Amino acid sequence: MFKSINKSSGRPIVILDPQWDRQIDVLRTLANQNLLVCQECNQPVRVRAGGELTAGREGKRFIRRHFAHKNKLNCTYGSESYKILKARAVLYDFLYSKFGDKVTLEKSFNDERVYRSIDCWVEINDKIFAYWILDGGMKAQRREDLSAILDKNGINIHWIFDASVLNVEDCDERTVNLSTTERYFMRSSQYDITLDKWKVGKSLHYIDSDNHKLITYRTLRLEHAPQQYGGHSRCSMLDELLVSPAKGEFVHPGEHQLFKEYQEKERIRNELKKKQDNSFNSYSQFDFVSKRSVDFVYDSLSCQQGSGHKFSDVQDIAVNDSVMLKCKICGEMTDSWWMADFGDNTCKCKKCYGKR
Questions:
Q1: Which residues contact residue 270 at a Cβ distance below 8 angstroms, ignoring those fewer than 6 apart?
Q2: Is the peptide bond before 245 cis (omega within 30 degrees of 0)?
Q3: In 10 A of CB 132, how many CB atoms?
Q4: What is the pLDDT of residue 272?
Q5: Among 134, 260, 326, 344, which one has the highest count of C-beta atoms within 10 angstroms of its own C-beta?
Q6: Distances (CA, A) of 166 to 125, 216, 243, 254
Q7: Computed from CA positions of residues 112, 114, 118, 124, in that sequence, does the dihedral angle turn out positive or negative?
């Protein structure tokens, strides 16, 4: 664990904070006096200064300074994996660089369904961002209960897998094999953008704590049931990442600009559609005027090479009926018509409305 409680002051101590870089001896003194305790079981802890640790087949590995129980007890803080602890430390460093003391490490939650501490917790004004690291699978009932309680409390929760979980196809890095737990924790994002809108999928994040990188798969969608998914990946150094101020989501370099461009294209597309719909609605005072006639005006003008006509020209014709045409019924030339055939420059005038 990286956080303990000072019994004399009641205040939490995060051993990863920069203020303890040169004051480890102070913490050791407090620990020797049994003044530092676990926030869950309230039992004394000792200070581990970190360094290289020999770990069997895995060889030597470096561990960060941390707290450890003096006596082995049935406490969730004493049973967390090395992968989660390592990733938690790296994630905390990154979030601390963005939010400072607004970040809480190893946040305890008063609900038994939240079976361990939340790795990182950020509170900004009335917004809460939470980050939960996974290094493997989670049972169905546990993940459902965990998601339900966090969503119910209005917490923007972000699920992050350790990079060791990532199972990429050797022949194509765009294809990944996802476990049941990974599939469950996929989430939709505004940054799931593709050229084909119908292919929009979901996102998953993987943290590589050894290299301080975040790998994100966007637009994930099922290709071969039940576990083979396709998408596109982004990999960035943590210090290059942005964090969305709205929801606390990770944003890779260039993704926000791409999203803004996509928004602008959607805005222009919607405006053109609205103008077109308005021109169709105001084309005639008669309710039964066919949309096909306006389509014909547009097609006829747009097919004339070098005519210089634009959609605004078609709209003027449709709304103002300003073109002189010969009525198919009475034979008179008129610009007061309710249906036009630009194939032979004829129309049906309003005087002849209702006549066969």
A1: none
A2: no
A3: 23
A4: 79
A5: 134
A6: 35, 11, 22, 24
A7: negative
Of residues 355 and 183, more confidence is placed in 183
Token pair listed for 135: 């290094």
Closest to 44 in 3D by CA, of 78, 71, 23: 71
Quick check: 284 pLDDT over 60? Answer: no
What is the C-alpha to C-alpha distance for residues 96 and 17, in angstroms, rounded to an integer?
9
Cβ(226)–Cβ(190) below 8 Å: no
Among 253, 260, 209, 247, which Cα is nearest to 127's?
247
CA atoms within 13 A on the CB side of 305: 0
Which residue is it, tokens 């071969």? 224
Q: What does 216-236 look like in DSSP terms, one character per residue?
A: EEEEEEEEETTTEEEEEEEEE
Residue 53 CB: number of other CB atoms within 10 A?
A: 12
**Considering only 109-113, 233-237, 340-344, which range has the smallest mean pLDDT?**
340-344
The residue type found at 166 is L
Place of tokens 């990188």: 213
> In sequence order, which residues have a C-beta less than 8 Å from that of residue 310 and are 6 or more positions away?
none
In angstroms, the CA 298 to CA 291 distance is 11
Average pLDDT rounded to a whole number, residues 44-70 = 69
pLDDT in tens, 77-130: 777 888 999 999 999 999 999 999 899 999 988 888 888 899 999 998 889 999
Query: Minimal CA–CA distance to 135: which of 174, 79, 176, 92?
Result: 79
Angle at 91 between CA 89 and CA 92, to 5 degrees: 65
The set of long-range contacts for 235-244, using a CB threshold of 8 Å and a minimum separation of 24, is 237/212, 237/213, 238/90, 238/94, 238/212, 238/213, 238/214, 239/94, 239/97, 239/212, 241/94, 241/214, 243/95, 243/98, 243/99, 243/129
Give the strand pairing for 325-327 and 346-349. Answer: parallel
Region of poorest pLDDT, from 44-58, 139-153, 223-237, 334-348 = 44-58
